[in-house]
């Protein structure tokens, strides 16, 4: 799969979300961070905003739920118009059941891991997913510095995906920029969430194109992609 860039609206102007979505229409997905001030110490937006955003843009929505009780709430985000819904394994009561419910409702099912959560205990769950998200910062706030110590975890996850022959996207979120995206791509990521690096640029659409070009260039020669 060609690398994908998903701009995070957490770094956008919340008073102009429709315009901010249009500013990155060349993006693969629009990353929507949902925070409840319980699972993470920040409060952002919920189902009504996702419904409005889905009507305002043709770019598919990638909803990242940093919330408690995702088993209860995640299906509502599919109904609101999300094309992909990510829940945190640390918060899910029944991750396999939840992933199957998200898929049954017509969206891609994705599971996220916080930095301290290892991938290995969840190897058997991978076939139930369409995407796995490795957090490269602690979830809760945008603009944080990239955690280099997550690169080995990205590599191990890519190895597990290859081991099982899965068509599973591997997303990274947190501190992704022109200075870090190539390391992520080399390690095995193919979906990149970028907030400040896109919306902090003078031309967000050009920033998306430039980041994608960087990731594509590295992926062509990456060992994991050559073995694929």
UniProtKB/TrEMBL annotation:
SUPFAM superfamilies: Ribulose-phoshate binding barrel
Cofactors, names only: Zn(2+); Mn(2+); Fe(2+); Co(2+)
Positions with a binding annotation for substrate: 8, 64, 140-143, 173-175, 195-196
The EC number(s) this enzyme carries: 5.1.3.1
Family: Belongs to the ribulose-phosphate 3-epimerase family.
Record-linked HAMAP family: RPE (MF_02227)
Family annotation (PANTHER family): RIBULOSE-5-PHOSPHATE-3-EPIMERASE
Protein name, UniProt field: Ribulose-phosphate 3-epimerase
Organism: Streptomyces lanatus
Species classification: Bacteria, Bacillati, Actinomycetota, Actinomycetes, Kitasatosporales
């Amino acid at each position: 799969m060609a690398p994908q860039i998903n701009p995070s609206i957490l770094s956008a102007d919340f008073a102009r979300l429709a315009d901010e979505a249009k500013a990155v229409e060349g993006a693969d997905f629009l990353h929507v961070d949902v925070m409840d001030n319980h699972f993470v110490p920040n409060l952002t937006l919920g189902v009504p905003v996702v419904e409005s955003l889905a009507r305002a843009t043709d770019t598919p929505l990638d909803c990242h739920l940093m919330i408690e009780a995702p088993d209860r709430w995640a299906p509502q985000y599919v109904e609101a118009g999300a094309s992909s819904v990510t829940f945190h394994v640390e918060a899910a009561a029944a991750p396999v059941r939840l992933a199957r419910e998200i898929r049954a409702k017509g969206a891609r099912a994705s599971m996220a891991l916080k930095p301290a959560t290892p991938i290995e205990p969840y190897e058997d769950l991978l076939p139930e997913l369409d995407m796995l998200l490795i957090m490269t910062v602690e979830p809760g706030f945008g603009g944080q510095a990239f955690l280099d110590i997550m690169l080995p975890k990205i590599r191990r996850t890519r190895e597990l995906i290859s081991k099982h022959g899965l068509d599973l996207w591997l997303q990274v979120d947190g501190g992704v920029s022109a200075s870090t995206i190539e390391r992520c791509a080399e390690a095995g990521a193919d979906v990149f969430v970028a907030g400040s690096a896109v919306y902090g640029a003078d031309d967000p659409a050009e920033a998306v194109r430039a980041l994608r070009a960087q990731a594509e260039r590295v992926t062509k020669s990456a060992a994991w992609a050559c073995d694929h």
